[in-house]
Design a protein that fits this description.
It is a single chain. By secondary structure, this protein is mostly helical. Helix 4 runs parallel beside helix 7, helix 6 crosses helix 7 and helix 10 runs parallel beside helix 11. The longest helix has 36 residues. The protein is elongated, with a radius of gyration of 22 Å. 41% of the residues are buried. Belongs to the binding-protein-dependent transport system permease family. This is ABC transporter permease. It is found in: Cell membrane.
Length: 274
């Protein structure tokens, strides 16, 4: 297994290494933004309002004279943090429901399966907007809304995987050998079922960042003057004709980060690491 995993990582290919480099820079922006942008993302300077990109202000400034480069770098923590937290909720609860449906009685599996099918048919952003309407807006609400909206997808995928493994030959042999159900679950079913969630969660974080930004753009997530990328897009749309940089650079941050996570997740799934 170790040799196979090593060969798989050696075959990631240059697009995946580019994605890893982008994510490494993003991780620095999340954990230590002062290294990349030592300024204050909330500091205003009306005299520098709406300046175009220049050596002094790499991404230009906004309507209050705040440096957009500093705000984009510091905003990574908010956008990526919300995306990670929402994905953790979706994967965690989805795993519980997926195992329950895949290993539970037929009646429970049938009932949960129908629920998964109905909820999976609804677009995730529509479901998130529905939850936002119920629980209100804000960063915490965005985490809960997106996390809850992504549960059906993870649960449906895991349910199918669990049922296939539970009916496999090596699991049947373990049962015939007198291995306890708990040991069969912990040694055979759970490890082989959960690994595919790694690639799915990697893809899910990228999607969650886009949905978080969409909620912020609609004014339902983090609110100005927060440097969260979606909120920055919301602020910049008023000036899109005269200050294009206010929307282009936060939008590029969203696209590049989500694309890097998506490329890496798809590569991991293709190589069978997850």
């Amino acid at each position: 297994m170790q040799q196979k995993t090593s060969r798989s990582f050696n075959g990631l290919g240059w697009p995946s290494y580019v994605a890893l480099a982008i994510l490494a820079i993003t991780a620095v922006a999340v954990c230590a933004p002062q290294i990349l942008a030592p300024g204050n993302p909330l500091a205003i300077n009306p005299a520098d309002a709406l300046q175009s990109p220049s050596p002094v202000h790499l991404f230009g400034t906004d309507e209050s004279g705040r440096d957009l480069y500093t705000r984009v770098i510091h905003g990574a923590a908010a956008s990526l943090g919300i995306g990670l937290a929402a994905t953790a909720i979706g994967v965690g609860l989805g795993a519980i429901l997926g195992f329950t449906a895949g290993l539970g009685p037929k009646l429970v599996d049938s009932a949960l399966g129908r629920v998964f099918e109905v909820l999976f048919a609804l677009p995730t952003l529509v479901m998130a907007l529905l939850f936002i309407t119920i629980i209100g807006g804000g960063p915490t609400a965005s985490i809960l809304a997106i996390g809850l909206a992504t549960i059906p997808g993870y649960a449906r995928m895991l349910r199918s995987r669990v049922r296939g493994i539970a009916q496999s030959g090596y699991v049947e042999w373990a049962r015939l050998d007198g291995v306890s159900p708990l040991r069969v679950f912990t040694r055979h079913i759970a490890p082989n079922s959960l690994w595919p969630l790694v690639s799915a969660a990697t893809l899910g974080v990228g999607q969650a960042i886009v949905w978080v930004s969409a909620l912020g753009f609609l004014g339902l997530g983090a609110l100005p003057p927060s440097p969260e990328w979606g909120a920055m897009l919301n602020s910049g749309r008023t000036y899109i004709a005269t200050a294009w940089w206010m929307t282009v650079f936060p939008g590029l941050a969203i696209v590049v980060t989500a694309a890097a996570l998506t490329a890496l997740g798809r590569r991991l799934a293709k190589l069978g690491i997850a």
